[in-house]
Specification:
It is a single chain. With 191 residues, this protein is of the alpha+beta class. Among the domains are: 1-30; 50-148, Alpha-Beta Plaits. 34% of the residues lie in helices and 13% in strands. It has three helices and five strands, in the order H-E-H-E-E-E-E-H. The strands form two sheets. A three-stranded antiparallel beta sheet has the order 2-3-5, with helices on one face. The chain is elongated, with a radius of gyration of 32 Å.
């Protein structure tokens, strides 16, 4: 019987301790933020949605290699010698066409590791934290400025350039082999 009364008293005491916390907050006026209209200020180093400034991106793939969850996909095509891609904001000359730059925010763990290795600082975390979507496909952000048709055209132009370069190299090698076989000096050889 003594054990029964002890257990009953402990149960009542536990409820009273819990009610003490409840009663303390019952008479304090509550502070409610009207969320869509009023938003809490974020800390300065808050990590939220990623953004890529494609004018500064050189297609180095450093951010994709640093990403622990592989949410960044980058595809590039080497520019032709006749192409002028311009320079980044810090003066670095661009040499690659960025044909694909996708970030799957559904996979992103907001670690910020992709922002540190970027040599041009074109990828960074913004203060946008409201980006829910109904479909998962809508969380894949495409930052590439080239359309699919333009990207395919750049790939074909580069392949054509490389084929022409290989053909010219093969022709020069064949001419050199023919010269070595006949033993006559080539008229283009310089002494």
């Amino acid at each position: 019987m003594k054990e029964y009364l002890k257990n009953t008293w402990e149960g009542i005491w536990t409820v009273l301790v819990g009610m003490k916390v409840t009663l303390k907050h019952l008479f304090v006026p509550s502070v409610t933020i009207q969320y869509p209209d009023v938003k809490m200020p974020l800390p300065e180093r808050a990590r939220n949605r990623l953004y890529v400034n494609m004018d500064d991106c050189i297609g180095c793939d450093q951010c994709a290699r640093a990403c622990p969850v592989d949410c960044i996909e980058i595809e590039t095509v080497k520019a032709l010698p006749t192409d002028n891609l311009g320079v980044t904001s810090n003066g670095k000359k661009k040499a690659l066409w960025v044909t694909k730059f996708d970030i799957d925010i559904a996979k992103c763990c907001y670690c910020g590791l992709c922002t540190y290795p970027c040599p041009t600082e074109c990828i960074y975390m913004t203060d946008v934290y409201e980006f829910s979507e109904y479909k998962r496909e809508d969380l894949i952000y495409n930052y590439a400025t080239l359309t699919a048709q333009e990207a395919e055209e750049k790939k074909q132009n580069y392949e054509k350039f490389m084929a022409e370069k290989a053909a010219a190299k093969a022709k020069a090698a064949a001419a050199k082999a023919a010269q070595a076989k006949t033993g006559k000096p080539d008229s283009t050889d310089k002494k």
